[in-house]
Amino acid sequence: MTLSETSLIKQETRPLVTSANLQEDEAVLNWYALYTCPRHEKCVAQQIEQRSIACFLPMYRSMRRWKDRRKELELALFPGYVFVRLALKDRFRVLQLPSAVRLVSFNGQPAVLPESEIEDLKQRLSRGGSIEPHPYLSVGRRVRVCSGPMQGLEGIIVRCKDRCRIVFSVDLIMRSMAVEVDEYDVEPVMVSKPVN
Domain segments of the chain: what residues? Predict the structure, then answer.
């Protein structure tokens, strides 16, 4: 066998990347983080829903005080972000919206959010409690809530004065949220150390 015949055999055994394979990948529905103009999250989410595209905008309630009155506002939990579920080939239907800036990307490719992370986030919000934004945390003492409405959820414990909070983070957008819990309702999570 000659060298050219050997290279032909090697080329035939390699999987071919065709435009059909790329189109299949672009047709799969995935969750993406859409970056928006500041304070335009609700407007963008409404426009996305009008186009029959699934989206998720986590919200929280905050009491604001002015000189003459107090008012409870519903604000975006992660300012500047809306989560959108779409096929990558349909991204321009969302990016053409006023106030939609871009999909969060790495190396020029839109970053897919795991379905489980969105479901966990929805579950945390549906359980109630006083959830509010918190500065991003990725390191700290990990705990699991063992009783109460947030039972089963894991996060990083933070103490502020006499209050105890659990901080949950969405690493892709580097944002966190905190919920107050009773210190007696949490237990430490054992993190396995890597074996050298």
Answer: 26-113, 118-196
DSSP state of 88: G
The per-residue pLDDT for range 142-179, each reduced to its tens digit, is: 998 888 777 888 889 998 777 888 898 888 899 999 98
According to CATH, the topology of domain 118-196 is: SH3 type barrels. (2.30.30)
Q: What is the mean pLDDT of the chain?
A: 83
Measured in degrees and rounded to the nearest 5, phi and psi for residue 83 equal -95, 135
Backbone phi, psi, residue 64, to 5°: -115, 145
**Amino acid letter, residue 133:** P
E strand or H helix that includes residue 131: strand 131-134
* pTM for this predicted structure: 0.78
CA-CA distance, 142 to 189, in Å (whole number)? Answer: 6
Helix/strand number for the chain, H first, E second: 5, 15
Instruction: Look at residue 9 and give its three-state secondary structure.
Output: helix
C-alpha R_g of the chain? 22
Take residue 91 and report the two structure tokens written for it: 């991204």
The CATH number, out of the four listed (2.40.50.140, 3.30.565.10, 3.30.70.940, 3.30.720.120), of the domain defined by the range 26-113: 3.30.70.940
